[in-house]
Amino acid sequence: MTSYYFDNNATTRVLPEVLEAMLPWFTEHYGNPSSSHQFGQFAKEALMTARAAVAKFLHASPVEIVFTSGATESNHMAIISALALHPNRSRIVTSAVEHASTLRLLDELSRTGIEVIQVPVNAKGELNLIRLKEAVNENTALVTLMHANNETGVIFPIAEVASIAHEKGALFHTDAAQTAGKIALDVAQIACDFLSFSGHKLHAPMGVGVLYVKKGLTAKPLLYGHQERNRRGGTENITGIIGLGVACQLAQQTMSNANSTIAALRNELEQTVLKTLPFVSANGSEPRVPNTTNLCFTGLHGEELLHKLNKAGVMASLGSACTAGGTDPSHVLLAMGLSREDAFSSLRLSLSKETTDSEVKMLTQIITQVVTEMRSPVNV
Ligand code: PMP
Predict the structure, then answer these.
(1) CATH superfamily of 4-12+256-375
(2) 16-251, which class in CATH?
(3) Hey, CA dihedral for 123, 126, 129, 132, is it positive or negative?
(4) Distance 355 CA to ligand 1 centre (A)
């Protein structure tokens, strides 16, 4: 059976060029970059090359790049570092629709006396900037805000929020897990202090990620050791890091062309489904990342829809992958004001630069068929 992969916000396929660059580092050049012999020094040079590529990708300097295991770890490190940098401030401002890696940590911190303010979003998924401005004060250590939402793709105005944070002397961190590789990132333009992302969302492997730490700020390690300028201990994931360096380079070269194609395919998919089927609406409004659509099939049981699509070869997601299989509806859709029923009836479809026009056409046919069957009087 042919597979139709529409879950690229959960993870992406490793690109052939990325795999090719990584392969020799498993079996031929397997040195530890901390070793002083030939193999070690060779690995150290490869690490430097990858760091330079990632720095270029973010318009940062190589010393500002800390390699981590992924965005979850990077988010943790940014939040813990901000609290250490502002020991006399105890407020963190965030949004109600952040990824679980942020919200769960903040929940934990709130039990230790940190005051966490979750700024709401409206029905379109847009951040309430007035409420954000009210929440940021002289006691705020950090404003942490995702760049784009993983479920709806809605983009937040992070540069504006960074300047609101800085006006009150607070630090600003952005979780760019869903924008890295999808829209150009420039840390100077955003004026962020910290930025996180994961390799596997942009065609590098899982288990490698980045925390950008603005020059002059001291990051607090979560893991102690001499690596990454004492900021992240543990022998470096050299193969993953090399893959990430190449993935960043490729994304930077191809992003602007790929984006218009991806957006055109996403729009075609969304418009066709909305036109063809009744009782379907799109969750989240522009600006959105080009690859994501989140559709509510009112009255349908989302898990059942997902299961039927899966049987037809379509891989999609209910809300975020991290909540899939769980019994709770998406906190993002609930925060946007959807009922529990509508949140349970919503499906996320996410494309990549590898998605083809014929896959989109097949997907729309399969969705139309499955949804029509589910809605037919025999099945109601
Ligand atoms: N933040 C966002 C917005 C994400 O979408 C994800 C991945 N679902 C993460 C953080 C965590 O990334 P990872 O699981 O690779 O650590």
Answers:
(1) Aspartate Aminotransferase, domain 1 (3.90.1150.10)
(2) alpha beta
(3) positive
(4) 21
CATH code 3.40.640.10 region(s) in the chain: 16-251
SS3 sequence, 352-365?
A: CCCCCHHHHHHHHH
Terminal Cα distance for the chain, rounded: 28
Catalytic residue among 192, 248, 296, 322: 322
Q: What is the pTM of this model?
A: 0.97
Residue identifier of the C-alpha nearest atom 4 of ligand 1? 177
- For ligand 1, mutation pick of 79, 178, 208 (most atoms within 8 Å of CB): 178
> Catalytic residue at 248?
no
What is the best residue among 12, 95, 101 to mutate for testing ligand 1's pocket, by most ligand atoms within 8 Å of CB? Answer: 101
* Angstrom distance (rounded) from CA 345 to CA 319: 10
Pocket of ligand 1 (CB under 6 A): 70-72, 99, 101, 146, 150, 175, 177-178, 198, 200, 320, 322
Question: In the chain, which segments carry CATH 3.90.1150.10?
Answer: 4-12+256-375
What one-letter code names the amino acid at 83? Answer: L
Query: Tell me: the pLDDT tens digits for 163-220?
Result: 999 999 999 999 999 999 999 999 999 999 999 999 999 999 999 999 999 999 999 9
**Separation of alpha carbons 212 and 216, rounded Å:** 12
**Token digits for 125?**
């998924």
